[in-house]
Q: What sequence folds into this?
């Protein structure tokens, strides 16, 4: 596993709380994620994992607490600015652009790195076609890594579920983000697709020097891929550490299995 | 195959350029109306078909374009070639004005606000008599092109045809750029659109402003064609007709807006003898195509073609 002990954490979350009405989705949450790390976040349904992602994506504003990404106050940014900082994500329930083609979905991931405006595009100013061709080429490279190139012209909605999940990852990584948030990427995948996913993620991280936060229910996937695990229950961290030690933590077992009698 | 469709398209264009002088005057008038309708529906398609933001106020933008172009010519003595784009810009500004407060709304609420906007525009046209002469309407001077006065349907056709072709080409370019993809992304998933960096507000405003610009341009051309405008040509019912055009043709398809604009704009002419049931017919056509042709006529054609091949 990659090790960057000298560097400051890329993501630092301090005392984060999110309340929906009286319900605490997250309370007093603290986390440090190091550059290059793959951090698994697990916990029963409703533990606050997706809420955490939605706060980092700035869809939710926390009730209190701080987030620093690369030492900047993250909460000053709006949802659509988050990707410009180098944070990109996938969604628990597939959120592909269903009427766009597979290739165009990946191209969407490059939107912020392109310049065409409705004026320059309308009269095809110099450079517009070149920019478009370049983005198509970069998107194709990602599709090749994911072995989706033969589906490029197909509407995304016609892809099988497992491939849709991969495509969403492709859209998220094409811009070469620094931090990737994966929300249950293996859900809906077959056994073979899951092991393929693990290989893909290692490959992508190696090529792109990514830091990954991974929410996943499939224990085999999380244990295989994560450098460290954070376990949430009822909005609070109940355990943290290397996969092997977390797995045997009695609190974790209790949260998943219930109290032993 | 690609060459064949290019040749067919070219032949179609040539026919449209060569044939009109030999056609019945009424047919030439209809060709003009078709061009103008295609312009309106192409614009509406950008905001409603592609960006998924319902706009039931398009008749308001057409009205503003028609009246602004006319008043700029008659009151300020501006040349038609300046008044026409200025009229469209004024309509676009109105589009901006209506977009900013209403974009927090969705679905039915946005539909209601835009519909209300069109109704207000119609009221203003009727009651601001000092500017619009109210129900009496305004005479529109014919455009001058050098020594030629575009005072016949035939001459106007060449103008309307060229502008429509140009504006459809522009819409096509926008749709195939990152801007067009951003529109579709908003329609398909606002969450994911934001996650890839789409500023929802900015792009919804752009879509609305473009739609209003197309509507305003069409209004100015319509005024020059019919040479007389009055509020009843821009009733809110027209907005429903425009929506019907893109629904019947196929939302989110350039070709759909063209086919819808061409077919639906002919209906009032075909139903001339049935004035009383016209509005009912539009409603019926809208509902029937929503139920049986969810992707419009374009979707119907696509169904007969082969499914997209893997690797194409």
A:
């Amino acid at each position: 596993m990659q090790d960057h002990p000298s560097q400051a954490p890329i993501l630092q979350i301090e005392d984060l709380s999110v309340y929906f009405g009286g319900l605490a989705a997250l309370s007093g949450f603290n986390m440090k994620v190091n550059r290059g790390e793959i951090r698994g976040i697990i916990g029963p349904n409703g533990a606050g994992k997706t809420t955490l992602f939605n706060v980092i994506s700035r869809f939710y504003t926390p009730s209190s607490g701080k987030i620093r990404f690369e030492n900047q106050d993250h909460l000053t940014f709006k949802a659509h600015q988050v990707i410009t900082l180098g944070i990109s994500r996938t969604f628990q329930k597939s959120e592909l652009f269903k009427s766009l083609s597979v290739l165009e979905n990946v191209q969407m991931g490059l939107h912020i790195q392109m310049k065409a405006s409705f004026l320059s595009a309308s009269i095809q100013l110099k450079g517009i076609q070149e920019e478009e061709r370049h983005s198509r080429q970069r998107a194709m490279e990602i599709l090749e890594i994911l072995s989706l190139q033969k589906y490029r012209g197909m509407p995304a909605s016609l892809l099988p579920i497992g491939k849709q999940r991969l495509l969403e990852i492709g859209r998220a990584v094409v811009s070469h983000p620094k931090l990737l948030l994966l929300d249950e990427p293996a859900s809906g995948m077959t056994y073979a697709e899951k092991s393929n996913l693990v290989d893909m993620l290692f490959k992508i991280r190696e090529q792109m020097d990514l830091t990954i936060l991974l929410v996943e229910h499939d224990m085999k996937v999380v244990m295989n891929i994560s450098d460290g695990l954070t376990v949430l229950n009822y909005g609070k961290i109940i355990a943290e550490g290397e996969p092997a030690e977390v797995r045997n933590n009695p609190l974790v077992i209790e949260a998943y299995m219930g109290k032993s009698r | 195959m690609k060459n064949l469709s290019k040749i067919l398209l070219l032949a179609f264009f040539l026919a449209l350029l060569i044939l009109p002088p030999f056609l019945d005057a009424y047919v030439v008038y209809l060709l003009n109306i078709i061009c103008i309708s295609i312009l309106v529906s192409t614009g509406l398609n950008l905001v409603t078909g592609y960006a998924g933001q319902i706009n039931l106020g398009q008749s308001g933008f057409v009205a503003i374009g028609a009246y602004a172009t006319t008043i700029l010519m008659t009151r300020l003595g501006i040349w038609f070639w300046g008044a026409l784009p200025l009229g469209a810009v004024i309509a676009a500004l109105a589009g901006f004005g209506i977009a900013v407060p209403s974009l927090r709304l969705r679905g039915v609420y946005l539909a209601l606000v835009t519909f209300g906007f069109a109704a207000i525009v119609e009221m203003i046209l009727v009651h601001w008599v000092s500017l619009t002469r109210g129900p009496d309407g305004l005479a529109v001077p014919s455009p001058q092109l050098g020594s030629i006065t575009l005072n016949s349907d035939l001459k106007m056709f060449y103008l309307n045809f060229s502008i429509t072709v140009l504006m459809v080409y522009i819409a096509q370019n926008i749709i195939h750029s990152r801007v067009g993809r951003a529109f579709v992304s908003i329609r398909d998933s606002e969450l994911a659109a934001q996650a890839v960096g789409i500023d929802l507000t900015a792009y919804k405003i752009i879509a609305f402003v473009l739609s209003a610009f197309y509507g305003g341009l069409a209004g100015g051309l319509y005024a020059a064609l019919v040479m007389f405008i009055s509020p009843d040509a821009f009733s809110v019912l027209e907005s429903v007709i425009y929506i019907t055009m893109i629904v019947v043709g196929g939302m989110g398809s350039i070709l759909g807006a063209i086919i819808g604009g061409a077919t639906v704009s002919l209906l009032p002419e075909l139903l001339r003898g049935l004035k009383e049931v016209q509005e009912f017919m539009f409603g019926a056509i809208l509902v029937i195509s929503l139920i049986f042709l969810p992707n419009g006529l374009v979707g119907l054609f696509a169904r007969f073609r082969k499914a997209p091949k893997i690797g194409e």
User: Anything to note?
Assistant: The domain at 32-270+278-306 of chain B is CATH 1.10.3470 (ABC transporter involved in vitamin B12 uptake, BtuC). The interface with chain A takes residues 170-171, 173-174, 176-182, 184-185, 187-189, 191-200, 206, 210, 252, 308, 310-312 of chain B (CB under 8 Å).
